[in-house]
From TrEMBL, chains A, B:
SUPFAM superfamilies: FMN-binding split barrel (SSF50475). It holds the Pfam family Pyridox_ox_2. This is Pyridoxamine 5'-phosphate oxidase family protein. It comes from the Bacteria. InterPro entries: Pyridox_Oxase-rel (IPR024747), Split_barrel_FMN-bd (IPR012349). Residues 1-11 have a biased composition (Polar residues). Residues 1-20 are annotated as: Disordered. Gene3D superfamilies: Electron Transport, Fmn-binding Protein, Chain A.
Length: 240, 240
């Protein structure tokens, strides 16, 4: 367990308790899992609600800049208005990597990579930071695409709320490899192993209203059919 | 919006506020999204914690039986011990279906299907329900597999905590189709359309310790390379 200089310092909030050998706190591991994904599940509680602290968890596209996570949406969104108040949130990113089939139900498992990151959400008010980060969001997924589009209009900036969270603590959990069975069960005539799962790109569907003569552009060449989304996002993050 | 007899009745907690035309409350839609997935993100708050209601969100395998969602894990798990106390939780399931590329950054979007389900977690103490549901979990993903394995041992039942949540309220949100751009932007020389994304099965990796002579079994025949996981789980749910 690396809890050195370049690691997030776990407290009781983020320390991996069960199967702690699966827990990692170093920035390299945490950032790699974040950079390979694009949908986070963000948990928050609406303060002072009469229903006794009902938590919500919402799927949201996110991106990372250093130790800051960003997400955005309509200024009319209840989630974003609530989070703008500066409340504690938990941002979780999960990659499902495989089904682990063991020789007993008990030892079936899942191969995965996940990160739980903790901090306080804040609303980004600075217009320059807002515009820079919204452009970064596009270029992070589609490097070079901003250059092919018109810029952000002032009323679009106004209609968009940008949230940021400095990562105060984060932990990664990873499971890889074959099943681990009870010793006597290895003698059973039961198939065991791993069935890999990955998020994969399909064949692009041009907008029916696409202007005649506009071809599949150079900046999307990595989005070829059959490619893994996590590998592609990782490649983009490294070249960014 | 179907809020008839066979629909969950939305309150302020679950009603889709933004882009409400994307919101659905009927059981058929909600159950179909749940049955096509296997990983949920579950939000909860550890009661009486000194850090002011910090929410947590944990990725967990789940399954459905009627209007009840189940998930399980080690009896030593902090998450499960906390949830056993009967606290409000939010269970969210998300399918990322595609990247929607518009002619402006503002109109970029994501095609997805998601469900947010609300209720109180409870610990299943009844041993018969526990055993039945744990077997259902295996058969839901791998129909017929239980018959090829040894049964659950009593100490395994004891070491496993099973949580259940009756769905009190649920809402589904769905986006499909091409981008919607501002009228003047359709004239731009910018590629627009949808890049589909799906979770796909890879080539199975047999356990290095697999007993000689054990072949890929009949009950896994649907897990063929290149198949979509959501389609396969849906097919299993329908035949179950």
């Amino acid at each position: 367990m690396d809890t050195g200089v370049n690691a997030y310092s776990p407290t009781d909030r983020s320390r991996v308790k069960r199967l702690h050998e699966r827990g990692k706190y170093d920035r390299e591991t945490v950032h790699a899992i974040l950079d390979a994904g694009m949908i986070a599940h963000i948990a928050y509680v609406i303060p002072d609600e009469s229903n006794g602290g009902q938590p919500y968890v919402t799927p949201t596209a996110y991106w990372r800049d250093g130790d800051t996570l960003y997400w955005h949406g309509s200024s009319a969104s209840r989630m974003l208005r609530t989070q703008s108040a500066g409340i504690p949130v938990c941002v979780t990113v999960t990659h499902l990597d495989g089904l682990v089939l063991a020789r007993s139900g008990f030892h079936h498992s899942i191969n995965y990579r996940s990160v739980m990151a903790f901090g306080q959400a804040r609303k980004v008010e600075d217009v320059a930071e807002k515009e820079r980060e919204l452009n970064r969001f596009i270029d992070r997924i589609y490097p070079g695409r901003n250059a092919t589009m018109r810029g952000i209009e002032p009323q679009e900036l106004k209609a968009t709320t940008l949230l940021a969270m400095e990562i105060e603590e984060a932990s990664a959990k990873i499971r890889t490899g074959p099943p681990k069975d009870d010793e006597p069960d290895y003698a059973l005539d039961c198939w065991a192993g791993v069935i890999p799962i990955a998020q994969v790109i399909g064949a692009a569907v041009p907008d029916p209203l696409l202007k005649a003569g506009v071809d599949w552009p150079e900046h999307l060449k990595l989005f070829s059919e059959g490619r893994r989304l996590d590998a592609l996002l990782t490649e983009h993050a490294e070249s960014y």
